[in-house]
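Entry for adenosine-5'-triphosphate complex. Fields follow.
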Amino acid sequence: MPELPEVETVRATLEKQIIGYTIKKVKVYCERIVLNEKEDVINAKLVGETIRKINRYGKYLIFILDKHSFLSHLRMEGKYFLKKEDEERNKHEHVIFSFTNGLELRYHDVRKFGLIKILDTTDMKEILKEEELNKLGPEAHSLSLNATYLFNKLHKLKESLKTALLDQTIICGLGNIYVDEVDFLSNLKPTTSCQMITYDDCENIIKNSRLVLNKAIEAGGTTIRSYTSSLGVTGRFQLNLNVHTKAGSPCPLCGTIIEKIKVGGRGTYYCPSCQKDHPLIVGLTGSIGSGKTTISNYLKEKGYLIIDTDEISRSLTKDNKEILNKIKEEFGPSFFINGELNRKELGDLVFNNENERNKLNNILHPVIKDKVKEIIRNSSDKIIFVDVPLLFESGFDKLCNKTICVVVDKTEQIKRLKLRDKLNDLDIQKRIDSQMDLKKKSELATFIIDNSQDLCYTYKQTDKLIKILEGEINHD
Ligand code: ATP
């Protein structure tokens, strides 16, 4: 079945061939293909009009003439041929547009599933309001598609990611071939429930849709079975396929054998190692000294994987040469003693100055994020907790399915910090002020744990939450 890149290839090829051609006659051999008009009405509307432009939306071709236009969807097997009018008609050529120059545009469709619809306008705004087009989502490779839109659409759905991405009302232009390729590049198993898809996954899906579709358009589409361009162009994207049709071959990234399964009735190809089951990723945050580490340690004891971003940050600022060089470049050599970063000095600077703090975060956060993603990718745990003090401030929540905010009564917080860090009131206040207000954080979080009382009370709440999270992953 032709997908968006193949239809785009047909569009671009036709545009080079038939722009400026004037219609002399239209012959309809199969009425069911032309949706809305009979042959005599079509002739009354189109004869004498010239093809001015050929547009496309999703898999619809839109032929713009002088006062009219027509939509064309190729469905399973539709093709266009440009032939001389004296050439014999093939029995599968169902609609023939004859031009005044002796050439004919012939719509060929073995299965007769395609459609043509004549419209009384050439205004694209009006055309896009047609019922066939107005229900389509944004094109998968368009710059107007953004992660917020896709996340809002997907995360409420119970169906599989593959099924949702094939649904043209959500995004249009991804068909069976390209969804497999996009899922592969996004490290997402096609059977993943949409509810497990994070905002970050949506960003990856969009990035990879653009990559795959633009590359496929550049290559003239993919030539597999039914699609071979009738117009003298053969798609070459099959040479770039990573997984689609590759069952039994090694994954180009890891060498694991590609498998073929059925998802929503469609043959689906994926790499079982690169596209594992999606874990439930739970972000853990709170204010300074609110009890994140205390709860993390409790979860660790219970056997859960905790990714501690503070620990990653400490390790990066200890011996990651690239990071240390960037810090030296940004803040100067005075923050280094014998080649080692003076963390206390830099800490004092950044806690006192938002601008400096942002500079440091801009150096560290992208690298920490990549490290977190790598740990998640390499783990087979079903639930993974990520301890991030600045979960919402730094956008780490986009990596998570759920978030927990640990809250604490402020007097108790100050008391505990004095005891733990031997800081004075002013320093404690500066550190608290440097983070997002705890009330705001708790409003953004999916769950709250109140750690103002004794540990027993905190652990009880944590146990309750674990039950809920375990229920989330087991309910399918
Ligand atoms: P930071 O933001 O600095 O990483 P944190 O959020 O990880 O801090 P913890 O280190 O877990 O907070 O807790 C801060 C201090 O409070 C620690 O000394 C810890 O032992 C103590 N503490 C945590 N929870 C309780 C509690 N429920 N009762 C008494 N002390 C507690």
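NOTE: The mean pLDDT is 92.
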